Amino acid sequence: xxxxxxxxxxxxxxxxxxxxxxxxxxxxxxxxxxxxxxxxxxxxxxxxxxxxxxxxxxxxxxxxxxxxxxxxxxxxxxxxxxxxxxxxxxxxxxxxxxxxxxxxxxxxxxxxxxxxxxxxxxxxxxxxxxxxxxxxxxxxxxxxxxxxxxxxxxxxxxxxxxxxxxxxxxxxxxxxxxxxxxxxxxxxxxxxxxxxxxxxxxxxxxxxxxxxxxxxxxxxxxxxxxxxxxxxxxxxxxxxxxxxxxxxxxxxxxxxxxxxxxxxxxxxxxxxxxxxxxxxxxxxxxxxxxxxxxxxxxxxxxxxxxxxxxxxxxxxxxxxxxxxxxxxxxxxxxxxxxxxxxxxxxxxxxxxxxxxxxxxxxxxxxxxxxxxxxxxxxxxxxxxxxxxxxxxxxxxxxxxxxxxxxxxxxxxxxxxxxxxxxxxxxxxxxxxxxxxxxxxxxx
Length: 443
Known about the structure:
Helices cover about 40% and strands about 15% of the residues. The protein is of the alpha/beta class. The chain has an eleven-stranded mixed β-sheet, with helices on both faces.
């Protein structure tokens, strides 16, 4: 599958053009059940035609001018309803203007194909949606399997080759998890790295944005576009790069996830990376904190949606989402304050713990499970959701930017992922390291 960088190079050489690529994407999207909630075909055709004219004139607006992308249906797009994957929002007023991220990429010439599906209100790591359907994981050959969530449609749109880039959001793992389960790259930025204005929220202190892509170089280039930079990146040498492989995270994971991760680590060692295999005291303490005191996002999600839960519209919610939201109603405020204070302490501890190194963990402890059993069994859904989110939640609580990279596949061809993470705010260093790591991995 072509990544966005290769696609733009084809535009520049005249071997392809944005209009042709868009029409293929629209056709492919129309045949992909439940991946998109809405397509913005009229806008996309207008943008693609303008881009094609710019390329013919040799005056592209950016390195990704004409590249099609999709948006998780939390991002406002002018004239389009932002459903947040919820039935009660089907007839909400259309957005009056683009979210700043949408506007920035539109001004860079990128072509917005439409809005992708997600877990309702972005509140699940599995990606099931009873209102708009559940996109099937395109890697599954034996039976329908989950896409991962909550950025389910965005991950499937990239993995299925509909678009090379799709934007997602991540509050507890919602970019990294579907990236791993679908075999694509997923970048969770630090919370303040991109503007979250015009993006439907879930938990204000934990929500972050980022792309799902086919390559790290695309994620880096998109980061440049979003931040108004224009530069080319070359993978640095891995020689001397310090990495901590979190030993405790290797316990209780599926053999394929473990084997693929350890093979990747061996490849990094051969390339000169310095890898310290040990438990991270901070990572383990954060896991223990969440297990004992709960999830900070639960408090924030309930506060955000309390009015909804007390309204008649609550009857339209996915019962599983509603139960999870309601579960925080009776939690004591002292518990939330404890989590906030512990987070500050652990973020500082992480700097000492890693001492300039980056952290490696599995992204998810398992490959994509079968869909039917999860649809039929609420208890199984709940336990699987927690197990799926477990290894990404610590990074979210500590606001660690993270890049999930494909690490291989199991015997059924289902993808596995490794997660490279850094302390909050170190996005540039993380992306540069991820580019170097990706360059030596052979899957």
